[in-house]
Amino acid sequence: xxxxxxxxxxxxxxxACGESAYIVGGGLRDMMLGIEPxxxxxxxxxxxxxxAEIFSDKHVIETGLKHGTVTVVFDGEPVxxxxxxxxxxxTDMRHPDSVxxxxxxxLDLSRxxxxxxxxxxxxxxxxxxxxxxxxxxxxRLICAVGDPVKRxxxxxxxxxxxxxxxxxxxxxxxxxxxxxxxxxxxxxxxxARERIANEFFKLITSGDPYRSLxxxxxxxxLKYVLGEYEPSDEILSQLCKMPAMVPARMGLLLSRAxxxxxxxxxxxxxxxxxxxxxxxxxxxxxxxxxxxPADARRLFALVGIYAEHAALASELLEISPSGAYEMTKRQAxxxxxxxxxxxxxxxxxxxxxxxxxxxxTLSALLSxxxxxxxxxxxxxxxxxxxxxxxxxxxx
Length: 395
Ligand code: ATP
Ligand code: MG
Description:
It is a single chain. The protein is of the alpha+beta class. Helix content is about 50%, strand content about 10%. It has helices at about 5-15, 25-35, 50-55, 105-110, 135-140, 150-155, 155-170, 175-185, 195-205, 210-220, 225, 235-240, 245-255, 260-270, 275-285, 295-305, 305-315, 325-330, 345-350, 355-370, 380-395, and strands at about 20-25, 40-45, 60-65, 70-75, 75-85, 85, 100, 120, 125-130, 140, 170-175. Helix 15 (about 275-285) crosses helix 17 (about 305-315). The chain is elongated, with a radius of gyration of 28 Å. The mean pLDDT is about 95. The site of adenosine-5'-triphosphate (ATP) has 10 residues, from helix 2 and helix 7. Adenosine-5'-triphosphate (ATP) binds near residues 41 and 113.
């Protein structure tokens, strides 16, 4: 097992104080898969107060004392250290009523969602794997810890997580676990929207979202994410070809929804302003045929920086001919917004325009320049502007 030096030091410090500590969760799973973990989680028998004492020479953030989590910043890297924990009963189907601490790592592992996420490793004690997570990694299988129906009824977010890990890792979902995910899908209605969105956005930006999305559609989970809107199989199958970013992929996903529906879905998922603007722009442009350089420039004028991804989406949906994406990219530096024009509002005022006529004239000039970029020349534009302004005033 390879891990950074500071992780080894954290575990050694705990052991020197008579406590046990392990690498757990996604970091360990990824290490065993040969993927570089994006972070490491440590579980320990030490109570949070003791953890804070052991690392009093470091920057310690009391992240979630109630849940036993303390963040220690080691060489600039935040490491979450959580006391071994048992979750009490889940009467509301999303949060445990209480959590209690334990010094038994196996009890801590038994509250975790899937066998591949329920292992622990320490250099002195080796791998603790009571639920055979290593075997499931070898079988490439997502399998709930314990009875999947019970586990999904405790916290239905785990259903989303099963589909998300399946997409990210390219693993299958164990038959019993998948069956329970189907039976228990209704529980998703009780889960906070941002938790659902967090898992869903990870799923759609993964390497292989298609299979998971088809399963979610078939098993009744997707409607708890997208409501009544049902993306076609064509859309789902092309998603992996979009850049792995939320605006690009949500844009293609929502491209056959009307704009109000798309906006409402993004709002319900608590998408950020940037994600919303981007996804709506890509969705809008995805429906347009971009077949010529002038079309590509018009697309830039319509959706700005999202034009390239919009063109890619429309090419994937076979609305635009193949090559539309590359062609659109080649138009990226041409003038496509009023800011790119070689004249401005002051010039229009000097020519006698005022109020709305200034903006209207600039828009008219832009549309001429988008059709023919060689018109973006100060002299030519001033002449065209004069003509336009005089005509408007004459009317
Ligand atoms: P990622 O690579 O996305 O961080 P992860 O497995 O580390 O994946 P986290 O959400 O960071 O996922 O959670 C860390 C660990 O906590 C998981 O590996 C799992 O053991 C446990 N866990 C997280 N969420 C749940 C949940 N809803 N129910 C049970 N256990 C959970
Ligand atoms: Mg993690």
